[in-house]
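> example.struct
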């Protein structure tokens, strides 16, 4: 496609299939200016091979990546939405800018049916395409309702969300879409996301020095799956907050010190899963807290170096091979104990650090060079 490959106004939802998408603009996109509760993308299955001139997957309100296998060989930004959820599957994203990006909802486009830039409709001058002669199947020329859909008040087929609403939603939120812009009632119902609980993003105001565009409703949450990111900008970038509760997240940040592997405005917490992110030291950030120990370690490596996180019991808690030179490493894994002495081993050279659930205790010190244990290795390439 010279522009977008798969485009849905209300939503794009995929359960299965094999997709090879080459797009001049976004490969998969959904946005709807007249309804802030729609414009989402849900990939619950299938395999995707994507090359995009702009975003690989863009949902104006949310992107849900479930049990899909996604390989993005080229894009500007990988998964972009106000809320990005990775809950399972296999995901590898090569991006010239941010690989995972949470940014506030925008409504820069024209009315429904217009193409990007507010121009004429894709077919005709702002008018929908005519139904086939004799009318489309179904009453009044409306297309027939797809399996699992429900008619609206005018009888048109409308997509229906899963019976339990969006995954992670509260009871009774069937059919609800992601959280609307700041100031509106949250419709998604993600526990702790925007409910104002103590320590949650919803309880935070913009801190002093927050960048323009910071928004409390912006969230990146990783709860499952295996994710490998190669970013020319920030690997994981939220204009709000970041939450890691499970899965495996391996990221290679940019060569430039103007960006970082991890970037956020309010808070970033880790409560489970494996996190191993390498990048430049200039703008490097660590997590603000969580229930699983983490650390930001100053350690340099070259492209092709094996990076290993070694726990206090000499087991390898996480490892992967960096594909670009780096000076700083964010690390967290279930095998790390709070306030424990650990090692980061880069190409056989060890750096000692203390893993902790608080950022003040995340510190590193030079350690002796030596071989690394391999008794419990997890690898990513």
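> example.seq
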């Amino acid at each position: 496609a010279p522009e977008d490959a798969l485009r849905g106004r209300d939503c794009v939802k995929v359960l299965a299939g094999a997709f090879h998408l080459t797009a001049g603009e976004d490969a998969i996109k959904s946005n709807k200016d007249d309804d802030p509760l729609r414009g989402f993308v849900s990939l619950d299955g299938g395999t995707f091979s994507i090359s995009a001139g702009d975003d690989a997957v863009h949902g104006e309100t949310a992107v849900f990546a479930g049990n899909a296998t996604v390989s993005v060989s080229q894009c500007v930004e990988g998964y972009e939405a106000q809320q990005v959820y990775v809950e399972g599957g296999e995901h590898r994203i090569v991006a010239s800018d941010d690989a995972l990006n949470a940014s506030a909802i925008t409504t820069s486009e024209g009315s429904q049916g217009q193409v990007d830039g507010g121009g004429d409709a894709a077919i005709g001058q702002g008018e929908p395409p005519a139904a086939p002669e004799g009318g489309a199947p179904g009453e009044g020329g409306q297309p027939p309702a797809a399996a699992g859909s429900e008619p609206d008040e005018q009888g048109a087929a409308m997509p229906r969300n899963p019976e339990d609403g969006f995954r992670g939603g509260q009871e009774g939120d069937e059919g609800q879409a992601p959280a609307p812009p700041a100031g509106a009632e949250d419709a998604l119902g993600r526990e702790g996301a925007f409910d104002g609980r103590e320590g949650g993003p919803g309880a935070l105001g913009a801190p002093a020095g927050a960048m323009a565009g910071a928004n409390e409703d912006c969230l990146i949450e990783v709860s499952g799956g295996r994710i490998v990111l190669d970013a020319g900008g920030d690997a994981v970038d939220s204009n709000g907050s970041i939450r890691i509760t499970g899965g495996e997240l391996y990221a290679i940040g940019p060569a430039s010190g103007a960006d970082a592997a991890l970037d956020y405005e309010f808070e970033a917490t880790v409560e489970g899963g494996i996190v191993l992110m390498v990048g430049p030291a200039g703008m490097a950030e660590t997590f603000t807290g969580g229930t699983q120990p983490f650390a930001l370690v100053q350690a340099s490596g070259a492209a092709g170096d094996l990076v290993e996180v070694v726990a206090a019991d000499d087991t390898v808690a996480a490892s992967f091979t960096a594909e670009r030179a780096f000076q700083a490493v964010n690390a967290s894994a279930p095998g790390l104990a709070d306030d424990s002495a650990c090692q980061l081993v880069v190409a056989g050279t060890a750096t000692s650090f203390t893993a902790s659930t608080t950022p003040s205790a995340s510190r590193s010190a030079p350690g002796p060079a030596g071989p690394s244990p391999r008794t419990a290795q997890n690898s990513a390439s």
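> remarks
The mean pLDDT is 75.
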